[in-house]
Amino acid sequence: MKPEEFVKTFSQFVNSGFRSSGQEAAALCMNDHPTLQQGMMCFCVAFIEEMAKKQHVDLRNEASRDLARQFIEACPERALPFI
């Protein structure tokens, strides 16, 4: 799957009621293979890093950007091994 396809699919998932099913989806990911879980975590960290870089946000994602910056500040060492 190409990154653009993933983003489209993930955006559709988020748009279709992520608030009610996001926790369930995250829990189901914990049943996946450890190598895949590591890859998922790498994606999450990359997303947080990108969110923290945003200079201009509106009220819809200001709190997300601020929280991402707190995560980055609290955890300067974010390298995850690929085993």
Give an overview of the whole structure.
This protein is mostly helical. The protein has 2 domains: 31 residues, no CATH class; 52 residues. 70% of the residues lie in helices and 0% in strands. The protein contains 4 helices and no strands. The radius of gyration is 14 Å and the shape is globular. The protein starts with a helix and ends in a 9-residue tail after the last helix.
Q: What's the gyration radius in Å?
A: 14 Å
Tally of contiguous helical segments: 4
Portion in strands: under 5%
Kindly report how far apart the N and C termini lie. Answer: 22 Å
What structural class results from the helix and strand content? mainly alpha
Mean pLDDT: 91
Which percent range fits the helix content? 55-70%
Question: How would a textbook summarize the main sheet?
Answer: none
Order of helices and strands: HHHH
Number of E-type strands: 0
Write down the domain tally: 2
Low-pLDDT segments: none
Shape: globular
SSE order and pairing:
Layout lengths: L2 H13 L2 H12 L4 H20 L8 H13 L9
Helix pairs in contact: 3-4
Quick recap:
This protein is mostly helical and 83 residues long. 70% of the residues lie in helices and 0% in strands.
Could you name the key traits of this structure?
83 residues, mainly alpha, 70% helix, globular
